[in-house]
Write a structure and sequence with these properties.
The protein is an alpha/beta fold. The chain is built from 11 helices and 11 strands. The strands form 2 sheets. Strands 2-1-3-10-4-11 form a 6-stranded mixed sheet, sandwiched between helices. The longest helix is centred in the C-terminal third of the chain and has 22 residues. The chain is globular and about 65 Å long. The termini are far apart. The relative contact order is 0.18.
Length: 324
């Protein structure tokens, strides 16, 4: 190198050093330590299952352990609050479910469900399954509506609890179909299913994973799914929307972090989870739980959250639903 070239080289070197200094340290080193994933539900349920799959995939792709922390209560809002109070550095992730946009209408939250979060990615999507006791003379949604109109309030439907997503999904159906069924809340999906199988209640909107095995065993009769389209696993079961146009309720899960988390970190998490959702093992495990991979950008997930908060606010007001 000539002496004349030295000033130019030094200038370039300084510019490169300045650029390196301008890049946040978190972007250069993330992740430099183990992560935490808050699952705002009890261990053993469908949400816990999906959250743990995601944590395992991120552990492998990030090269750091993702530790799961279950913090249940208040329909998931207590655990979400824990996650949103964490430092916005990408080291605390929070799993949310389709109940998340319901909660603002039922509980007093200590955070803004839109402004205080940064969506990362929607992980899964799937329907609830509408099932009836075999003794009920109902084989279609049309039959169910006709029977309910003959005796308003005469049909009982079971749910996993007052203000749960399945409670609101059923009330949404009642409203759109112009019928009235009587709500019987239980403390969890298990007891609700057990009493429906026993005939103490006659209708249930249950998750695919928990309800479909009893349909296949003949203990319940599946008459519809709640998503706009039929599902590949059970193509002969129609959607409610085929009888009640416009009805569409999706059971989903996704990941959020606190607002203010660096965009480079959000993009890294979105990219790694997008790859994971294309992994055959993860696809197979999700489908075994009755859901399909979702994916998409943080903005798309945020749009869904905001839209559903408004939807459920209207339904809660119309049905007069109160949290327990």
């Amino acid at each position: 190198m000539t002496l004349r070239a030295l000033p130019a080289a030094a200038t370039a070197l300084c510019a490169g050093a300045s650029f390196a200094l301008a890049v946040p340290a978190s972007a250069q080193t993330y992740p430099a330590k183990p992560l935490r994933m808050v699952i705002p539900f009890a261990p053993g349920g469908g949400s816990d299952f999906i959250g743990r799959i995601a944590a395992q995939q991120l552990t492998e792709s990030l090269g750091q352990t993702v530790v799961v922390e279950n913090r249940g209560g208040a329909g998931g809002s207590l655990g979400v609050e824990v996650g949103m109070k964490a430092a916005p550095d990408g080291y605390t992730l929070t799993l949310i479910a389709a109940s998340y946009p319901v909660n603002p209408s039922l509980y007093k939250l200590n955070f803004d469900p839109v402004k205080d979060i940064q969506p990362v990615i929607q992980l899964s999507m799937g329907p609830f399954l509408v099932a009836v006791h075999p003794s009920l003379p109902v084989k279609t949604v049309k039959d169910l509506i006709a029977l309910a109109r003959k005796a308003p309030g005469g049909l009982n439907y079971a749910t996993s609890g007052q203000g749960s997503i399945v409670h609101l999904a059923t009330e949404h159906f009642n409203s759109m179909a112009g019928i009235k069924m009587t709500h019987i809340p239980y403390k969890g999906t298990g007891p609700a299913l057990s009493d429906t199988i026993a005939g103490h209640t006659t209708v249930i909107f249950g998750s695919i994973a928990s309800t479909l095995p009893f349909v296949r065993a003949g203990k319940l009769r599946g008459i519809a799914v709640t998503t706009a389209k039929r599902i590949p696993a059970e193509p002969n079961i129609p959607s409610i929307g085929e009888t009640v146009p416009g009805y569409d309720v999706t059971n989903w899960h996704g990941i959020i972090v606190p607002r203010g988390t660096p965009r480079t970190v959000v993009d890294r998490l979105n990219s790694d989870l997008t790859r994971a959702l294309r992994n055959k093992d993860m696809v197979d495990r999700l489908q075994a739980d009755g859901v399909s991979p979702a994916g998409g950008s943080p903005e798309e997930f945020g749009t869904r959250i905001a839209r559903e908060i408004e939807l459920w606010r209207k339904i809660v007001a119309q049905a007069g639903v109160k949290a327990e």
